[in-house]
Amino acid sequence: MEQAVIVYLLLNDGQFGTSKERASILALEDRLEQVLGNASVGEFDGDEFGDGKCILYMYGPDAERLFVVIEPVLKSSPAAVGGYAIKRFGKAADSRAREVRVTW
Question: Which domain of life is it from (predicted)?
Answer without folding.
Answer: Bacteria
